Amino acid sequence: MSHKLIRKDVAPVYDRIVANFLQNQNGSFFLVTNDEIFVRTMRGALRTMGLNYDSLSVAHVSSDIWKKCRDLLEERSQVVMFIESKINGRSNVFDFKSLKDSFGNRLKIICITPEVSEEHVSFIAENDVDSIIVKPISINNIIQKIAFAIKPSNIFQTEVENIKILIEKKEYDQAQLKIDILLEEKPSSSICMILKGDIARKNGDIKNAEIYYKEAVKESRLNLKPLQKLADLYEEIEESKEYIKYLLLMDKISPLNHKRKINIGEQYSKTGEDEKAKKFYSDAVNIVRSQANDMLASTLMDIGVKLREVNPEQSILFMNQALETKGADMTREDLWMVIEMGVSLRKKGDWKGAVQTYQQALNVIPNEAGLHYNMGMAYAQGKEHYKAVCEFEKAIAASSDILQESPLIPFNIGMVYFQMNRLQEVERFMKAALKCDPNFERAKTILGKIGSKAE
């Protein structure tokens, strides 16, 4: 998933949408993440728009998000929740539909993930998420994402939202009239066909609901929503052959949903196709086993982090166990564990061990900007400045957005160039730090120093 830079003449439009949401519409942001860099990026986005942090809440665990959402919505008209797809090895994705059912349109969900695989993104997309952010992400792009989530980008989408509200209120005739107007603009629109199907189904007109949902599938073949609508319809009327047909289609597009695999296995069991059933049950178990493995690795790493200051040797033993538990199954979502291990080794003075840890991770996840940056910091600790800047260059080549995640990143890179007396590069990175945070005093101090040197 690529991130396009926003043109300077367009960016203020998104700023105004987000600022208006917070200042005039009584909106708020709720971050559910352990990623301090992402938290700093969000704060940087607010600073860029001249806003304070009063509208921003943060939770580091996902266990109390229902209570926090209820509390926020008692004070605020709407909440935009940014939530990691996985925290401490536990997937949050299955919670999205329940959250939407509980809080409706007053809650917008933006899922944060470092994982870019098609099957992973498809799995998130099918669970009622409003938007997906693939990390790392720049301040400009995060503002754009928020603007798109809180405000439909055109009149057509605005009308779709209004029609959904009418259907919720059971004002079907008025909703139908509005859908017909939209269909004049976009004949056979997939979302319009879904809405027509929803009205028919609520009126007990199963035949027309089926027709409309099939038309929606035809217009949007890779969209899971119309497929799910058909599957739900066939389950409701006990058309088992059609039900399993659409379950299989969805499983092909999004194969990480273990609950759907269990449903498929159940249908094969009912028809006596035990071998097929066994395969899908086995696949479901493997997915859950992988999730359990993630939780074990995350728990070992959490113990290691807590022991870092108390017992550094034992801390590293637990962290090693965590990384060994992941092994070749490591994904971008597990990079935080590698970073924590590297931090512990560097605190101990073992910068070579940190380099080795980052390199092992790069063998599994090549061209990862965060790993190259941290390897550069490890080399810098060992006074291997040339190797350090080589890694920084690789990090920036992999993702130029890394310089906008936090002012500390360009500042730290600039300080290595400062040690090498390469003043032109120092100036470049200090200015990048100040672009990220205009009040970053340490960058101002270094710019003053290099100005004196130049004189």
UniProtKB/TrEMBL annotation:
Task: Indicate whether Transferase appears among the record's keywords.
Answer: no
Domain of life the protein comes from: Bacteria
Write out the ranges of the repeats annotated as TPR.
335-368, 407-440
Signal peptide residues on this chain, from the entry's feature table: none
* Statement: the UniProt record of this protein carries the keyword Transmembrane helix: no
* SMART domains in alphabetical order: TPR
InterPro entries from the UniProt entry: TPR-like_helical_dom_sf, TPR_rpt
Ordered alphabetically, the record's keywords are: TPR repeat
Q: What is this protein called?
A: Response regulator receiver protein
Q: Which organism is it from?
A: Desulfomicrobium baculatum (strain DSM 4028 / VKM B-1378 / X) (Desulfovibrio baculatus)
